[in-house]
Design goal:
Blueprint lengths: L2 H13 L8 E11 L2 E10 L3 H8 L4 E11 L10 E12 L4 E6 L5 E4 L2 H8 L1 E9 L8 E10 L9 H6 L10 E6 L1
């Protein structure tokens, strides 16, 4: 087999490789009106890569950023969002105590868990996040609420960042999940 045929076979095999299951999945995104404010809730299933879990177990905290944005459904691309909320959470593993810790970086609230599954479930529960006041919306208008979650590579320790930027094991995020509302 010549070199060109070898390269062609490698490219062909790479194109049929299975899609990675390491991703974040959003389900149940919804918004509700409560006392004049629209509140968003959702469930996020965090599927970290083996490398990310390995780093977590070696003491590297993983920081997640959740971005909520509200726009008019018919908005042009250059129109500003009506509301934008960024939430940051961190998961840590404390080897000596054998505990996983989930930290809300906005409020500083911390929760401890004995199992990784329990910590990931709590990390993925987004409940009643204030998006916008009802009075800021126009009656009869359609709006789209979008939600995305990503692993913040910039929050990793400096020696790990170059590898994280180049490796797909660290490019972890969800797609945008949408919820339509009419006021």
């Amino acid at each position: 087999m010549t070199l060109n045929k070898s390269c062609l076979w490698l490219l062909l095999l790479a194109s049929f490789s299975p899609v990675s299951a390491d991703e974040f999945l959003i389900s149940g995104l919804q918004a509700r009106l409560d006392e004049g404010n629209y509140l968003a809730s959702a469930e996020i299933e965090y599927r970290f890569s083996r490398k990310a879990f390995e780093a977590l177990h070696n003491g590297v905290p993983l920081t997640l950023e959740i971005h909520l944005q509200l726009r008019r459904s018919s908005a042009w691309i250059w129109e500003a969002d009506l509301a934008g909320v960024k939430l940051r959470y961190q998961i840590r593993y404390h080897a000596l105590a054998g505990l996983y810790q989930v930290i809300d970086l906005q409020s500083g609230d911390q929760q401890n868990f004995v199992t990784r599954a329990a910590a990931l479930t709590a990390l993925g529960r987004l409940s009643d996040v204030k998006v916008i006041e009802q009075g800021k919306l126009q009656a009869g208008e359609d709006y789209t609420l979008a939600l995305r979650s990503t692993l913040d590579i910039e929050a990793l320790p400096m020696p790990l960042r170059p590898l994280a930027y180049l490796s797909p094991d660290w490019s972890l995020s969800s797609g945008w999940s949408l919820w339509h509302l009419r006021y």
